[in-house]
Amino acid sequence: MFIARNDSEIVIRLSTDISKSAFKSIVDYLNYLEIASKSKAKQKDVDKLSREVKKGWWAKNRKRLIK
Asked: Which terminus, N or C, of the chain has the lesser number of Cβ atoms within 10 Å?
């Protein structure tokens, strides 16, 4: 593995031995970190949105999961 950093970017080189799915997971996580670092959202707002999404999901899936 090779990692280099300059003022505007980080360069990472990996061997081709890593699986495609593992690589995709890493890229998705790095993408999330990059997006989150630019967010102006407050944690309390994120928590509120998360609760609302979970409520909506539960309302849609409750009958399917509880029999």
From this structure: C
Nearest alpha-carbon partner for 26 in 9, 14, 38, 40: 14
Q: Quick one: pLDDT band at residue 57, thresholds 50, 70, 90?
A: confident
Instruction: Give the pair of three-digit tokens for residue 11.
Output: 């360069």
With contact defined as beta carbons under 8 Å apart, do 1 and 12 qualify?
yes
Contacts of 13 (CB under 8 A, 6+ apart): 1, 2, 3
The stretches of the chain forming alpha helices (DSSP H) are: 20-37, 43-65
Question: If you average pLDDT over residues 32-53, what whole number do you get?
Answer: 92
Distance between CA atoms of residues 17 and 5, nearest Å: 23
